[in-house]
Amino acid sequence: MVMNVDIISKEIIKPSSPTPHHLSNFKLSFLDQIAPPIYIPIILFYDSKKFVDVDPFERSHSLKKSLAETLTPYYPLAGTPINEDFYINCNDQGVDYIQARVPCNLSEVVDNPKGKELMQLLPFEPYHCSTEFVKEVLLGVQYNMFECGGVAIAVCVSHKIADGTSAVTFVNAWAGMSHRFI
């Protein structure tokens, strides 16, 4: 099966409340300062049975609102890296949120996963190590809608700001927050 994900929209989600001025700079540890620009990719799959009679765009709207709420206590994720000073400028710039259509059923992807095809579900390449200048982002989200009604929510978190445990903690906090909006 060849899967070609179609990007429908891209937008920036900002924290629901501004970061207090005294928290505007987040200093990276020495190890985080020298870490390569790689990301922790997480893909969560939900079959259509979980979303009976729910419009996928309404669901996406709820996820965006809950993401904005979750970014408030996780404010460094919505900031901008400052390489010269080894800080995160917690300027509430926001995170990339992408909506995409996947022209197949969720079961086709889950039953026979292929690495290159799964990469299309991510908001960007998580292991891109290049000497070229690339805008470094701290967090990206992609909401993938399958023909069958199932979805895959993909998150890429910069390893400079999070390890695996803290990335999962963020995703769990977002999941908990999203229950308030559904």
UniProtKB/TrEMBL annotation:
Superkingdom, taxonomy of origin: Eukaryota
Transmembrane portions of the chain: none
Protein name per Swiss-Prot or TrEMBL: Vinorine synthase
Gene Ontology molecular function terms on file: acyltransferase activity
Family membership noted in the UniProt record: Belongs to the plant acyltransferase family.
Record's keyword terms, sorted: Acyltransferase, Transferase
Organism per entry: Quercus suber
Gene3D superfamilies named among the record's database cross-references: Chloramphenicol acetyltransferase-like domain
